[in-house]
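Notebook p. 47: complex prediction with DAU.
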Amino acid sequence: MKDLKKILVTGGAGFIGVNLIKLILRDYPDYHVINFDALTYAGNLVSLADVENNPRYTFIKGDVANREAVNNAIEGCWGVLHLAAESHVDRSILDAAPFLNTNVIGTMTILDAMRKHNLKRYVQVSTDEVYGALKPDDPEFSETNRLLPNSPYSASKAGADLLVRSYFKTYDLPVIITRCSNNYGPYQFPEKLIPLLISNALQDKPIPVYGDGCQIRDWLYVEDHCRALMTVFEKGMPGEIYNIGGNNEIMNLDLVKTLLRQIGKPESLIESVKDRPGHDRRYAINSSRIKNELGWEPQYKLEDAMQKTVAWYLENDDWIDSVISGDYMEYYNKQYGE
Ligand code: NAD
Ligand code: DAU
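Predicted complex, structure tokens below:
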């Protein structure tokens, strides 16, 4: 058997991490994936049950802010895809502390370990939210936009990005930053708009729409994002930033109505609620750099991939049930016997 390159995927039990690990195991045979995840409320190993016995996959429970645990996990790895984060804006408004600890201190800890163990590649999975908000006629975010984060979440991600940049300049570490728009697809925790909507609609519960519902997001199917991450991991230029977007700007209210139609539920479920403080009005991403320099573009159209997503949640109601009941949190103890 040929030598496999070991890569550390942090946050691999979260929404994007799960989709990324499945993609790597399916389409990238040269890698052994080490999934390093603290299993917070957002980490769900049930989502990875189908690959847990794959010989190219290893799970390690650990906190990215724990130096010893990170050093042990990273030893012998070739590269890192760093996804672990506190990722929900509303939670960051209630309490910024875990965001600073995981997103900033955790990133520093991974970078230090990478330096110590002389790893060859690092991708910082960041977000378009670091650029702040756009007005209706503003051009899309490009990689040279100023960082103007508006929530504790996006401020912590911006802080991490700046730290990554500094490790490139100071230590010449081979690090790359990606900044992506809103993802959707299977295995997303139902606190984010789309899975929350589907889960509530299936139970005929109200769908909370913040403020006037006229905020705009640029939606990207998660598999397209994961392919972009692997493209950057394999072909990206150290020290660079790559924006990743879906070219799918849509107003929240329009998105909600479209999804309700697809699920076959009435618009009367929509409930207008108090707006999110500091709510960013519009995000839109210019992805021309990754397209022109690395040859990546999204493969999925919004309409088709939304239908695929709705179908997945309808077919996998047991997955949603285990999340809502909290049963998914027992899975690690059952399988790994802690
Ligand atoms: P998620 O919240 O679904 O998953 C985060 C994962 O990180 C979970 O498995 C959790 O257990 C793990 N984690 C949290 N704190 C940890 C810690 N201290 N140590 C180790 N593991 C820890 O997030 P996601 O939506 O999959 O996002 C993944 C990354 O992509 C994040 O960095 C996020 O900022 C970024 N991102 C997300 C989106 C999106 O739309 N979801 C868009 C752009 C960028
Ligand atoms: O842009 C990338 C970002 O996308 C990622 O960095 C974040 O990790 C990810 O959570 C996401 O952030 P958003 O705040 O855009 O996603 P969320 O699903 O929370 O909300 C999407 C939009 O829907 C936003 O305008 C707020 C609104 N919303 C959200 C929820 C949960 C509602 O109107 N009602 C809701 O109940």
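Notes: The chain has one domain: 5-336. Residues 87-89, 127-129, 181-182, 192-193, 196, 208-210, 215, 217, 252, 276, 283 surround DAU (ligand 2) (CB under 6 Å).
Next step: compare against the earlier run before touching the bench.
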